[in-house]
Amino acid sequence: MNIGDWLKEQMVSSEAYDAEQLLAGFLDEMDRGLSGDASSLAMIPAYIGTGGTVSPGKPVAVIDAGGTNLRVGIARFDESGKIELSNFSKQSMPGRDKQISAADFYNVLADTLAPIKDEFENIGFCFSYPAVILPNLDGRLLHWTKEIKIPELVGKHIGAGLIDALEARGIFGKRVAVLNDTVAALLAGLAQGQTFDASSYVGFILGTGTNTAYVERNENIGKLEGYLESGAQVINVESGGFNEFPRGPYDLQLDARSENPYGQAFEKTISGVYMGPIALELLKALAEKGVFSPSGAATLSSLNELTTIHIDNLASDNGRDTGPLSSDSFSDADREMMKTVFNGVVDRAALLTAVNILAAVVKSGAGRDAALPVCVNIDGSTYYKTFQLADKVQAHLKTMLEKRGLHIRCIQVEDAPVVGAAIAGLTAFH
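Above: the chain sequence. Below: its structure as tokens.
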């Protein structure tokens, strides 16, 4: 049995896809979303541009509400554009361990901000959950993800609730800019991008989930009520929802059993939380076909879960914990077969990731001059830590960019959500 051919038949191979067709489908969905037509890409306007000026030394409060932790503190930028943090606290994200009320959530934020109330006027609030951003830079929560349990807040304006909570404590005159974590990643690239004359900016995250943000010119946006005077603004693509591409039977089988069946199709092919389970579906199917040793097949058939970290550790031979794959029931040939299967999963993820990033670059209309590249800030542990993924993405991008005469520079900004939120808080109200 030729495993490469079998993976291609299951659509779990980069060779199973036509990059040009993928790109065309991605761009079409982006256009439809911008026009307000039905689309798998939400194309949510951030009402933030990239033309603001950061005043060195000026303090801003930063809130980073991530999937696991809540961080709050003060940020400043020095003359060189380096961020300086102070009075930062970190705690578990409220509502993660048990259901709480909206008042409980805002009390946690107000408790943390109250002692530093005299150090800031504006707040940059990186809110890593699906929210519609409004022209006044508030965000209305669409629904919770990442197991957060604060049902009272769904449909509510996050920034307004925070201001109300602060004013209830006698803290007045504060303004808050709410932004998505991918928008924050894009903004975090500004300082580095300006040093090499970036013509535009893209933020891309590939971790537990995935998303993309880019800068769109206003004349191409058909559904916005409030345009930015700069003539361009950041769009949160919500690219994990892209579904105009073919998937194989094992992808669909896994999808049907997921917590949100048939949603976030793109995310379910490339993100860290799904690549391990996809690999397990394939390995179990191959076990039934007699590809593995009898003992190896029996062990695979008994597994209920497989994390991306464990099979990635196996594929990379890094000596780290491989969890259930460390069993003596697997022969050396079994392990090589498992590596081959996971490499196919990674190969596909790399191609789809490259197409996603390229679509954002193409849509920006920038990067046509080698001296003025598009700055692409890439964030997320899955992108950087998955064996060979980053190199494969860059190889695909190089080929596709050269074909179109486009130029980018990929960067990595440490603590991008905090940096981006601070920039938003300092520039959004000018």
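Residues 332-364 form the longest helix (33 residues).
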